[in-house]
Write a structure and sequence with these properties.
Structural class: alpha/beta
Number of helices: 8
CATH architecture: 3-Layer(aba) Sandwich
Strand content: 15-25%
Number of domains: 1
Number of strands: 7
Low-confidence stretches: 95-122
Helix content: 25-40%
Largest sheet: 5 strands, parallel
Strand order of the largest sheet: 3-2-1-6-4
CATH superfamily: SPOUT methyltransferase, trefoil knot domain
Shape: globular
Order of helices and strands: HEHEHEEHHHEEHEH
Radius of gyration: 18 Å
CATH topology: Alpha/beta knot
Mean pLDDT: 82
CATH class: Alpha Beta
Length: 227
């Protein structure tokens, strides 16, 4: 498929990975946001709803013809579709280690996630229930640093993983983030709010990434003028 020349000129070193997203309305809205933000491509893992399903097409409002979409990928082959030196960031802050790593400032304001439905959390609970031998570790569970979504995370090509609302992000996505030097990105919500809709979270992160890249480009342009 070919894409509009104007769209290709505005593509950014920013990718989106959809991890087991099953709701067609959410996926369509996410694709629309990805096209609007200037994502270079969208990768869909196995388990995601068919991107060409009618409800997805309606919600996407033509995004399929503005941003490359590669679907039905397994986690073993997905890294082949990432540019060199890409860092993978996960839109998830509900893991076992995340709460302990959130800054005191965020905790003081109640900026923590109340959702407990992610697949990863299920893995964590199962791990806690197991009778581990003395000295045994949980090294299989990636420990990713948590940072606020509005701090700089686009110094290298970036890929953002967004999971489905029922199961959350997968263990494989966290392992990929760890292997590329990525982090968990925290979107703060006030106490009592369960979580953000997947499409809303993806939109916030993608346009924040676009903002950061624009600011970096402006700084580089200013530096060249001074020299």
């Amino acid at each position: 498929m070919t894409y509009p020349e104007t769209q290709l000129r505005h593509l950014l070193p920013l990718l989106l990975i959809c991890d087991n997203l099953r709701d067609p309305g959410n996926l369509g809205t996410i694709l629309r946001s990805a096209a609007g933000a200037g994502c270079s491509k969208v990768l869909l893992t196995k388990g995601c709803v068919d991107p060409w399903e009618p409800k997805v097409l309606r919600a996407a409002m033509g995004a399929h013809f503005q941003v490359p979409i590669i679907n039905n990928l397994d986690w073993e082959t997905l890294p082949n579709y990432l540019p060199t030196d890409t860092r993978v960031y996960v839109a998830d802050n509900c893991g076992l280690y995340a709460q302990a790593q959130i800054s005191n400032k965020a905790s003081d304001h109640g900026w923590v996630c109340d959702r407990r439905l992610s697949k990863l959390h299920k893995y964590e609970e199962e791990e806690e229930e197991e009778d581990l031998e003395p000295g045994a570790s949980k090294a299989w569970l990636p420990e990713l640093e948590v940072q606020s979504y509005d701090l700089d995370w686009t110094e290298a090509p970036a890929a953002v993983v967004v999971g489905g609302e029922t199961h959350g992000v997968s263990l494989e996505s966290l392992q990929l983030a760890e292997s590329t030097g990525g982090k968990r990105l925290l979107i703060p919500v006030v106490p009592g709010v369960d979580s953000l809709n997947s499409a809303m979270a993806a939109s916030i992160l993608l346009f924040e990434g676009r903002r950061q890249l624009r600011v970096r480009a402006e700084h580089l342009s200013r530096d060249r003028c001074y020299h």
